Amino acid sequence: MDIFRIEGPVRLCGSVTINGSKNASLPIMAASILAGGKSTLSAVPNLSDISVFSQLLEQLGCCVTRSDNGQLCIDSTVIDNPVGDYEIVRKMRASICILGPLLARYGKAKVSMPGGCAIGDRPVNLHIRGLQELGAQIHLKNGYIIAEAPNGLRGKEIFLGGPFGSTVLGTANVLMAAALAKGRTIIESAACEPEIADLAKYLNKMGAKISGIGSPRLVIEGVGHLQPVDYEVIPDRIEAGTFMVAAAITAGEITITNCRLDDMMAVVDRLRHIGVTIDPLLSRPPPRLASGDAGAGESKNGVVVTCSDGVKPADITTQPYPGFPTDLQAQFMALLSLAEGNSVIIEKVFPDRFMHVAELNRMAANLRKEGPAVIVAGVEKLMAASVMASDLRASAALVLAGLAAEGITIVNRVYHIDRGYEKIEKRLNPLGAKIKRKQIKGV
Ligand code: EPZ
User: Fold this and answer.
1) Which of these, 17, 104, 124, 299, has the minimum number of CB atoms within 10 Å of its CB?
2) Which residues of 105-131 are buried (b: 16+ CB within 10 A; e: fewer)?
3) Ligand 1 within 6 A of 169 CB?
4) Domain with 32 in it
């Protein structure tokens, strides 16, 4: 198992290009099942989650290869085993989003219940309810979801909201199934995340008829079949936010290209409140909109992120998009640990997503959990320590804290971070980080 040895404090300076979005890639890979044939996906990051999902598609009968220029080629002509095996699903919850496309194309699916993970329970009741509304017969047996639609799926008006608001992968599952259902489907309280909008655009390119993209009300006119297509996934807004925090927590200056500020308004709002400067990297004037207003085009070229006047406290509440993303909560907690004052972070999407609190406190942060909130009392500096990664984003927070802490920080179980960040040390070290990956035998 690998560990990171991180020497701090450092000041990061330089430029980094954001990779394609993991959370757009996974449902789009699942959607390729809907059309028999060869799909070529570009900008899909080279991550362990993507490899695991590729294994899952191959288990179904697909052929998945990476071309020399990094494109992901999926041949879904033959799917002769519509089963999502526990051994794979337990490693990655997103596997659940093969359920909808398998039902839509084959009329049956058997997918392991995902189970929980470090960020809390991961129920799929909304996925199941949405698919049942479309006419699927679903029951649970020996930890598996057994789904059948012998007479096909039929469009329906579906309210998909849950106690925590919308569901990202639940929307993906129902959207993919509805694309091939007979008649019209309306998904009310659909997830508005950019990754779901990207999935909908991919499906429309395949021949689906989806409107309301990016809104909480999706309208889908079912079609008879879909074509395999080539597609490029959007940049990863969570990776972009992570690098922005890296610039801020080290009082550095990082130019971040291939990032879409339009997808990150809540994040940019909090960063600016904290005292972080985010200037568009203007290589050409932004395009003029019909209204004559300056477009957001400048964000397409990237941004320069600096934080030279100290970190100010801020209150953050995570919410479904367009609210502040839960996937950046841990990273911002590391940053606010160094603020000149107290902050409050409330986690409204995954109320248990605080495994990083104890680890950051080991680094001399001053964090106190109060139910779904954490009171962050800013400290002058963090101290290096040996810490344990628990989930993908908590691990990123520990790495960021290690960049700012005085001394040598050891982050254990680095495999968590490899799930969502492609060789992060090879992207941070050229900016001035001092991170060494070491393999620890037998751990
Ligand atoms: C997606 O997970 C992301 N994963 C997560 O990112 C992200 O944290 C999450 O959305 C929220 O934005 C991928 O896209 C692969 P949800 P998902 O269904 O779809 C409850 C990362 O770090 N809920 O939107 O599984 C659920 O318990 C990962 O990249 C139900 O109650 O999340 C949670 O409280 C971690 N019933 C809330 O809804 C359901 O049937 C939001 O979950 C489904 C969800």
Assistant:
1) 17
2) bebbbbbbbbeebbbbeebbebbbbbb
3) yes
4) 22-232
Asked if 155 contacts 220 with a C-beta cutoff of 8 angstroms, the reply is yes
pLDDT surpassing 90 at residue 211? yes
One domain, residues 84 and 178: yes
- C-alpha to C-alpha distance for 193 and 164, rounded to whole angstroms: 15
139 pLDDT exceeds 50?
yes
Question: Are 85 and 33 found together in one domain?
Answer: yes
One domain for residues 59 and 84 = yes
Q: How many A from CA of 324 to the centre of ligand 1?
A: 14
CB 413 within 8 A of CB 1: yes
Whether residue 308 is predicted with pLDDT greater than 60 in this model: the reply is yes
Do 196 and 273 belong to one domain?
A: no
Query: Do residues 227 and 239 both lie within one domain?
Result: no
At which of 196, 215, 232 does a domain end? 232
- CA–CA dist 132, 258 (Å, integer): 39
Give yes or no: residues 120 and 214 share one domain: yes
CATH number at residue 191: 3.65.10.10
What phi and psi, each to the nearest 5 degrees, are found at residue 226? -125, 150
Q: Which atom of ligand 1 is nearest to the CA of 120?
A: 27
How remote is the CA of residue 167 from the centroid of ligand 1, in Å? 6
Is the whole model's pTM more than 0.85, yes or no? yes
Taking only Cα atoms into account, the Rg of the chain, rounded to an integer number of angstroms, comes to 22
232, 251, 274 - which closes a domain: 232
Residue 200 lies in a domain: yes
Same structural domain for residues 222 and 316? no
Q: Which residue has the tokens 């959370």?
A: 23
What is the total count of domains within the chain? 2
Q: What is the tens place of the pLDDT at every residue in 391-424?
A: 899 999 999 999 999 999 999 999 999 999 999 9
Residue numbers annotated as active site: 117
Q: Which atom of ligand 1 is nearest to the CA of 195?
A: 14
Is residue 180 left, alpha or beta, with left meaning phi > 0 and alpha meaning psi from -120 to 50? alpha
Smallest CA separation from ligand 1 atom 28, residue: 327
Per-residue pLDDT at 281:
82
Does residue 89 lie within any of the structural domains? yes
Ligand 1, residue 420: give the atom nearest the CA.
Answer: 29
Q: Do the beta carbons of residue 287 and residue 348 sit within 8 Å?
A: no
Cβ 126 under 6 angstroms from ligand 1: yes
CA distance 32 to 203: 9
Collapsed DSSP state (helix, strand, coil) of residue 404:
helix
Residue 292 placed within a domain: no
Q: Is the residue at 352 inside a domain? A: yes
Give yes or no: residues 171 and 301 share one domain: no
Distance CA 399, CA 210 (A): 40
